[in-house]
Amino acid sequence: IEFEELILPEDIKKEDFVKTLEKINTDPRITGVIMQRPFPPHVCVEEIQQTIHPLKDVEGMHPASIGSVLYNETDLAPCTAKAAVACLKSTALARTGLKGLECVVVGHSEIVGKPISFILMGEGATVTTCHHMTRELHIHTRKADAVFVAVGKPNLITGDMLKPGAAVIDVGINSVTLQDGTNTIVGDADFDSCLETAGWITPVPGGVGPVTTAILMQNTVLAGKAQRKRYEASFGPSHTATNLYLQT
After folding, report:
1. pTM listed for this prediction
2. 3-class secondary-structure state, position 126
3. Could you give the CA distance from residue 16 to residue 247 in angstroms, rounded to a whole number?
4. DSSP letters of 141-193?
5. What pLDDT score does 1 carry?
6. Staple 53 to which of 11, 25, 150, 234, CB 3.0 to 4.6 Å?
7. What is the tally of helices (H) and strands (E) in the chain?
8. What is the CA 65 to chain-centroid distance, rounded?
9. 110, 111, 123, 109: which is closest to 72 by C-alpha?
10. In this structure, what are the phi and psi dihedrals at residue 220, rounded to the nearest 5 degrees?
11. Is the pLDDT of residue 247 over 60?
């Protein structure tokens, strides 16, 4: 998969940003688009994200992509959410599928927590979604066969909050300063204490992150296939290569 970096000026006008994306939407050489954040304060991330055509939204951030998850259409679902569920599927807990598994998702963001919950429900799991307003979080997590955590709070989940043998899928990425003044990256779960109780746990870094990258590549391939299918349906397989049809 070839990659081209497009660096735009920090003071770019919103209108020019939108025009750039509209050109990308109709460029037959480009299969997918990902955007690196943060954006300049004067640029609305949500508005720019909606400008990307859903069939080129390989990150799965477009409202149409997220909405499709509700109907179990997960080809272009948010990458991190798909990766987190894929991690659970790699454990023995999912040997016969996810049906009936008790899953707790800690975090309800639009691009990670909520999509994880909906993907799990689509797989037949029983899902409880928790967040910063949840009371007695440990009561929920101790019942779970699998705990997903994505809130950006270091070491929120500890071993005494887990059911023995549970899977912990840690999506959090946090930079913390150690006593010696050095910085390190940790997740939302206290890895050492959770390891004593959990049957499976993803490390941070090196856990969900690499799987997310793989899912991004998978989404890109699926997006390419979807674009070709729509193109051929509109113009026929022998038509001159173009995807201006994506404007419709």
Report:
1. 0.90
2. strand
3. 18
4. HTT-SEEEE-SS-TT-B-GGGS-TT-EEEE---EEEE-TTS-EEEE-SB-HHH
5. 78
6. 25
7. 8, 7
8. 11
9. 123
10. -65, -45
11. no
